[in-house]
Amino acid sequence: MAGEARAGAERVVGVITANISLTVGALFYMGWCYTNAVYGYFRVNPLDLEIGPTEYVLRSAGTVFSSTLVFGAIVWLIVTTLPQLRLTELIPGRAVPGFVRRPLHRAAALAGDPLARQRAGLMLLLAAGVLVILSVTRITDNLYLTLALTAAGVLLLTQSAGTGAYAVGLITAAACALWATGVYAKDEGTAEAHEITRDLRMRTAVVVYTTKPLALSGPGVTAERLPKGNMYAQRYQGLRLLIGRAGRYYVLPVGWRPGVNATYLLRESDSMRIEILPGS
Fold first, then answer.
1. Going by fewer Cβ within 10 Å, which terminus of the chain is more open, N or C?
2. Which of 258, 259, 263 is nearest to 241 (CA)?
3. DSSP, residue by residue, the chain
4. pTM of the model
5. Cβ density class 61-100: b for 16+ within 10 Å, e for less
């Protein structure tokens, strides 16, 4: 009896550990999708920014993660660990009122019935198939719901079909989860890029002093020749900072328009001085 309990606990720990690993991977992927969407909008390759895996994870956790994703993670954890638990033993007999205990026992019985799980999984997959058909015919398009139904249906259908089949189910469900989180992060990043463009004037201002003229132009950019005797010959204003990384500054004209104006990469040197000022 003790051996069975230990084996059951090890299975649950294994499932939880696998889900934690998947969560970290999903956060990294979301961070990359989000960053790529934000800076790709301004034609900046995220690989050039030298962002590390930890920063990608932190970016996704700080800017993309939401209560909806937390709820989805909880549902995922319940679906993947529920069959490993003996819920009828975990539900107390006296501490829970009868009208609550009876549905819980019924749910526990269904969760423990392999045939019931397979039927539920098949129904979810059929519902996902209907949504795919509706999407192809352009009647409606709900990618998130389709992926959620597919992931849950595959898991329920394969949980009792053997180790190999369940492994395939987990891989399929994980692919659906990564697909959904990637699309969500990309949408959030694109929305952030649009917000940056709308509020560009309020972003950090950049003033550039150079010893030689530069081909900096665009809406709102002004070039001023400085009096002789100054260390620098030219001053450029009307630029806004997109991002600065290790002495490199990606700047935009204050009136930047997507697909029309350039994004400039500046490096501070002996022949160039870059001043950072509050936007207005």
1. N
2. 263
3. -HHHHHHHHHHHHHHHHHHHHHHHHHHHHHHHHHHHHHHHTTT--GGGGT--HHHHHHHIIIII--HHHHHHHHHHHHHHHGGGS-HHHHS-SSSS-HHHHHHHHHHHHHHT-HHHHHHHHHHHHHHHHHHHHHHHTTS---HHHHHHHHHHHHHHHHTTS-HHHHHHHHHHHHHHHHHHHHHHHHHHHHHHHHHHHHTGGGSPEEEEEESS-----STT-EEEEPPTTSS-SEEEEEEEEEEEETTEEEEEETT--TTTS--EEEE-BTTEEEEEE---
4. 0.72
5. eebbbeeebeebbeebeebbbbbbbeeeeeeeeeeeeeee
Of 72, 74, 103, 104, the C-alpha closest to 87 is 104
- The residue among 164, 125, 167 whose CA lies nearest residue 148 is 125
The answer to whether the beta carbons of residues 144 and 179 sit under 8 Å apart is no
The whole-angstrom separation of Cα 91 and Cα 100 is 10
- Pick 46 or 85 by higher pLDDT: 46
- Token pair, residue 244, equals 């600065």
Give per-residue pLDDT as tens, 26-68.
888 888 999 999 999 999 988 888 888 888 888 777 665 566 6
Angstrom CA distances, 123 to 98, 119, 147, 241, stand at 30, 6, 14, 52
- Amino acid at site 235: R
pLDDT per position as a tens digit, 143-159: 888 888 888 888 888 87
Radius of gyration of the chain (CA): 27
